[in-house]
């Protein structure tokens, strides 16, 4: 069967391998990337990835066979439908334990700590008028069973549906009283911190640890975010945002990246939001699908997906005290284009980014270039027959010609049939030519997929960089 966007094809894999979409040979082992190296596109060396890359990636069915060996979520129990489980929860004392910085030990007689302005709710299962300790004994902390929201049409391919509700959804939304849309004052002097962001949103991230799903409302629409907050996050942890590909969701991104294991081992807060159904196509989509909005809407106040990203960063700082100088973005395929889009347009807030199977498109559409090749560097690929030579507008967003662009780790399979490796080489070439730091890793002979331990392999690159690095 020919592989194409929108195709639905599943196959079973051995335990420990991850596949998405159309068939591709299992990937071999990756080596951990050197976080301090800077390799331009002409000298990059190849590293073969491990277990689970697969042609088709996110196109039409990124979820194939993610749960072939039992399928149930082994996470902390709150997010019953999340697909990845928590391979690392066994290493932590208690996946639902409170963060050290959160005081949940007060009694009902304590002074109010959060004024939600809703006295009618005083008798509800969650008493929001007092600082009442959270009930850690049940997934939703309300004392009774709250059915999961199983309305996401994308989840039809899963054995276990994804919980799209709020982590403490008791049937009504009780927004946190922030006084203004967001009240997160920061010193904007010579500290190197990003500027304060007064992005407007409602909803909040729960003051708890483990894996769960939260809901933020931006520009009038409720948006789902899968979160992992490890027990070892400390008082100022880094934040990693993971973006899924076309027709995926946050649970898929968390699973295919193995970011939950990274969170628990390294004390990283991870946020994996879900994109929206888009009724029209763009440079990367011929028709309507579920994907991230990029070009031509580069307005950070009116592009709802960019507003969501801003809200995630601000809310994670409010709820978990994440370090604003250590916020990172990574994504695969359409999520790769979006991670790059976020890194450029919010470059005063993103420390570094990584894209896999994306790049910079200067052709009319992503499908306009179908080049596949073999080699260890972009220079080697450029010498091969069929290498493209597009010179149109830079999509999803132009590489800055001056000023800062966050350092980028660019990865791609040389035999990707859906998004040509040509696009990642184009991005690498322009970043280098315009004075920006990039590390390129080409996976010789591999297709449109990611390794099962993707987040751990990228982390050394991220961990060595903070906001302000170029």
Q: How would you characterize this protein structure?
A:
The chain is α/β, with parallel strands linked by helices. It has one domain: Alpha/Beta hydrolase fold, catalytic domain (Rossmann fold), CATH 3.40.50.1820. It has seven helices and ten strands. The longest helix is centred in the middle third of the chain and has 17 residues. The chain starts with 209 loop residues before the first strand and ends in a 7-residue tail after the last helix. The relative contact order is 0.17. The N terminus is likely disordered.
Order of helices and strands: EEEHHEEEHEHEHEHEH
Provide the CATH superfamily: Alpha/Beta hydrolase fold, catalytic domain
Total beta strands: 10
Terminal-residue CA separation: 44 Å
CATH fold-type name: Rossmann fold
Specify the CATH class. Answer: Alpha Beta
Label the structural class. alpha/beta
Percent range for β-strand residues: 5-15%
Give the number of helices: 7
Q: How would a textbook summarize the main sheet?
A: 8 strands, mixed
Residue stretches low in confidence (pLDDT < 50, at least 5 long) are 1-32, 34-191
Q: Overall mean pLDDT score?
A: 72
Overall 3D shape: globular
Could you give the order of strands across the largest sheet?
1-2-4-3-7-8-9-10
The tally of structural domains comes to 1
- Indicate the percent of residues in helices: 10-25%
